[in-house]
Design a protein that fits this description.
One of its GO terms (biological process) is translation. This protein has 133 residues and is α+β, with helices and mostly antiparallel strands. It has helices at 6-20, 32-43, 83-88, 91-94, 116-122, and strands at 24-27, 47-53, 60-65, 72-74, 80-81, 104-109, 112-115, 126-132. Strands 4, 5, 6, 7 and 8 form a five-stranded antiparallel sheet that branches.
Length: 133
């Protein structure tokens, strides 16, 4: 079986484990992008922590869940947004968040993976890859 979008599989694994009330989720295969997204989720308080497990193949992440995630997923198609668009928060981005100040959009920017709030502070745009609330 071919995995086309490992980030989408990781977000689905987290969402399914949260809905089932599990204390942890196993994400495989691992990647740098998934690690960066997990760091953001940990920093913002959505997950308790994560660890990398080297299994000799692709590696895995064990994610400790806190029960704070209501919805999580990837944004398809991955659309680029400029700083001006991000400041206005157009309708095609607003639909991924629960309300005005609830939730995060995760962007891939030239300065690394960050939340939409960090991108607004740094006045840069990027590609919207995921959302969480």
């Amino acid at each position: 079986m071919v995995m086309l979008d490992t980030l989408a599989n990781a977000m689905a694994a987290i969402k399914n484990a949260e809905m089932r009330g599990k204390g942890e989720a196993i994400i495989m295969p691992s990647s740098k992008l998934i690690a960066n997204v997990l760091r953001i989720l940990e920093k913002e308080g959505y997950i308790g922590g994560f660890e990398y497990i080297d299994d000799g193949r692709w590696g895995k992440f064990r994610v400790k869940l806190l029960g704070r995630i209501n919805d999580i997923g990837v944004v398809k198609p991955r659309t680029p947004v400029s700083y001006r668009e991000l400041a206005k928060m157009p309708e095609h981005l607003r639909k991924y968040l629960a309300s005005r100040d609830v939730g995060l959009l995760i962007l891939s920017t030239p300065q690394g993976v960050m939340t939409h709030r960090e991108a607004l502070k740094r006045k840069i745009g990027g590609i919207v890859i995921a959302y969480v609330y």
